[in-house]
Specification:
The chain is mainly alpha-helical. It has helices at about 20-50, 60-85, 90-120, 130-155, 160-165. It is elongated and about 85 Å long.
Length: about 170
C-alpha cells in the first residue's frame, strides 16, 4: 500500500490579504448608507404634513420628494457596494469608483445650486448670522466631499487593485 495521494500535488491556493482600507470603506458604507433611512422619514413628516394641512406652500414639494428618492436610492446602492467590498467582489470596487464620481457630481451641482439661489436672493440665510451661515455651509460642503473623494483615491491604489485582481471575484 502506498501513501501517495495525487490530490496533494495540486498547487496551493493563493492567499490574498484583504486591504484594511477595503474593510474601512465597507463598514463606512453601511453607516453612511443607513443614515438617509433614519433621516428621510422625519424630513418627509416635517415637510409633507404641513403641506397637506395647508400650513405650507407646496411649490418645492416635487423637488424635495425627488431629492428624498435619489438619497434613498444612493443609500441602497452604497449598502450593496459595501457588502460587495467586504466580500471582495470586483464589481463592488468598480461600482464604488462610479459611486464616488456620481456623488461628487451630484454634490457639486446641489451645493452650487443652493449657493447661487442664496446669492441671487431667492432664499436668504439668517439675517443675524450671514457670515456664520457661509462658514458653516463651506465646512459642510467640504465634509460632504470627504467620503467620495477618499473612496475614489483608495479604490484606485495599486494594493487594492492587486487584491481584487488576485481574488478574481
Amino acid at each position: 500500500m502506498s501513501d501517495f495521494d495525487p490530490e496533494q500535488l495540486q498547487a496551493p491556493q493563493q492567499v490574498v490579504e484583504r486591504p484594511i482600507v477595503v474593510v474601512v470603506f465597507g463598514v463606512l458604507g453601511f453607516v453612511l448608507g443607513g443614515y438617509p433611512f433614519i433621516n428621510t422619514y422625519p424630513q418627509l413628516y416635517r415637510i409633507i404634513v404641513p403641506a397637506l394641512t395647508g400650513k405650507m406652500a407646496v411649490s418645492g414639494m416635487p423637488l424635495f420628494l425627488l431629492s428624498c428618492l435619489v438619497s434613498v436610492g444612493l443609500s441602497i446602492w452604497l449598502i450593496v457596494l459595501s457588502i460587495g467590498l467586504l466580500r471582495m467582489k470586483k464589481w463592488a470596487r468598480r461600482g464604488s469608483i462610479i459611486y464616488a464620481w456620481v456623488r461628487i457630481g451630484l454634490d457639486t451641482v446641489t451645493r452650487g445650486y443652493t449657493a447661487v439661489i442664496i446669492l441671487l436672493g431667492l432664499a436668504s440665510p439668517p439675517k443675524d448670522g450671514r457670515w456664520h451661515f457661509w462658514v458653516t455651509y463651506a465646512g459642510m460642503t467640504l465634509i460632504a466631499f470627504i467620503y467620495p473623494v477618499l473612496l475614489l483615491i483608495f479604490m484606485k491604489t495599486e494594493k487594492v487593485k492587486r487584491a481584487f485582481a488576485a481574488i478574481g471575484g
